[in-house]
Specification:
Elements: E1 5-13, H1 19-29, E2 33-45, E3 48-54, H2 57-68, E4 75-78, H3 84-97, E5 102-104, H4 119-129, E6 135-136, H5 140-147, H6 154-168, E7 171-175, E8 185-191, E9 194-200, H7 213-226, H8 231-247
Parallel strand pairs: 1-2, 1-4, 4-5, 5-6, 6-7
Antiparallel strand pairs: 2-3, 7-8, 8-9
């Protein structure tokens, strides 16, 4: 039996809607073998995050070593990394093992708009981790931080994507779900030395239960790339998957509920 192996490096969500749990469900839904390295354990549910306990950086590194030295992944997805020491540890391992596919979901801004990373952690993320990635998937608040620009419409989304690419040399998918009128995304990269941009237009779903959409999308893209899709087709397929997961209409919890990853 030949199956693709996907590693997620992220935080744990005890309520199962985001983080490691959402990633593993997504990987399973794609018929692939999921592995996990836990960076943080969170106390959270559909109403919010009520506590975060970071793993020791050395232990994060040991987890990564155990995966790569035994079952080398075909793709790696990185999500929540909460401090500079953990990011530094992950960077060293990624430089050592050089995964063929690396998707980074730069979780740095909370739903309420608060920064989740200290300045030192943000600096390492931008200067050392993101340049190793095949793709990064910031939402609008994260793209504002990464680009240093305001983003209020599609023109400014594209401008931000260009700036982020110029800073990092990494393909960028800026997700437009935080804009009020639409939920379109822009993929910006360079193909054959020429800038290339692809818009993915989507309608905003009426379902308010979207907890874990960022984690799910980035994991789905990692799966699609591991399956051999190029960036454009991989993103398109992943977006269709997440649309199905939202439209399935799962309704759990008293806040913003999770998706149905097997929809």
């Amino acid at each position: 039996m030949n199956v693709k192996k996907i590693l997620t490096i992220a935080g744990s969500d005890c309520s199962g809607g985001a983080g490691i749990q959402a990633d593993l469900k997504t990987i399973s839904a794609h018929g692939m073998y999921g592995m996990s390295v836990i960076t943080s354990v969170t106390a959270q549910n559909t109403t919010g995050v009520y506590g975060v306990c970071d793993m020791e950086p050395d232990f994060v590194g040991r987890q990564i070593d155990c995966v790569f030295e035994d079952i080398r992944p075909d793709a790696v997805k990185i999500g929540m990394v909460s401090n500079a020491e953990i990011i530094e540890c992950i960077v060293k391992r990624m430089e050592q093992y050089r995964p063929e596919i690396l998707v980074v979901d730069p979780v740095m801004v909370s739903t309420s708009g608060c920064m989740l990373l200290e300045d030192s952690a943000l600096q390492i993320l931008v200067s050392r981790l993101i340049p190793l990635a095949s793709l990064i998937t910031p939402n609008i608040p994260e793209a504002r931080v990464l680009s240093g620009t305001e983003i209020n419409d599609e023109k400014e989304m594209l401008q931000a994507a260009r700036i982020i690419y110029e800073k990092t040399g990494t393909a960028v998918l800026v997700k437009g779900g935080h804009l009020t009128n639409q939920a379109s995304d822009i993929l910006y990269r360079v193909l054959e030395d020429e800038p290339a941009e692809t818009w993915f237009y989507g309608k905003r779903s009426d379902n308010p239960n979207t907890h874990g959409t960022g984690c799910t999308l980035s994991s789905a893209i990692a799966c699609q790339l591991a399956a051999g899709q190029n960036l454009e087709n991989g993103v398109a397929e992943a977006k269709q998957y997440i649309s199905n997961a939202i439209q399935a209409g799962l309704n759990l919890g008293s806040g913003s509920g999770p998706l149905w990853h097997f929809g």
